Description:
three-stranded antiparallel sheet
Amino acid sequence: MGNMRLVYVIVFYYFGLVTGVHISNLNDSCIRCLCYVTGCDLSHGCSQGYCGPFYISRVYWVDAGKPTLPDDNPERKEAFEDCARDYHCSVKIVENYMARFGKDCNKDGITNCFDYMMINHHGDGACTEPLYLTNLGRRRLQLYQQCRL
C-alpha cells in the first residue's frame, strides 16, 4: 500500500510540473471572467503599451517571469508582444503573475477570483484600493459582477 501512495505522489507531482502552475481558485471560469473584465478582444494587438485580450503590459509580463510561446526566447524583442497577443500564452502570463502576487485583497479570508480581478486592475501593490474610486474601476466592477452571475 505504501508503494502505491508513493506512485500516486510521483504521478501527481509529474503532472503538476507538466501542466503548469495551480493557483487556488484561479480556474477556467475565473480566467474567462478576468478576460471579460479587461475587454477580452482576441483581435487586439498592442496599443499604448498594452497587448492582447488581457491588455497586458511589458512590466506585468516581466513580473510574471517572461513566459513565451513554445520555442521562443524571452530575450527576443517581440517575445512579449507575441505571447501577450496569443490567448493561451497570455493566460500563462496571468497565471504566473497570480502565482507570484496572488493574495486576499478584500481581507475576507479567501483568495478568489475577485481578488485576482483586483490585482489585475491595481497591480500587485495596491489591490486593497476600492474600485469605485475611478470610472474604469467602476466599469470593471460592473463587468466582473456580470460575468460572475
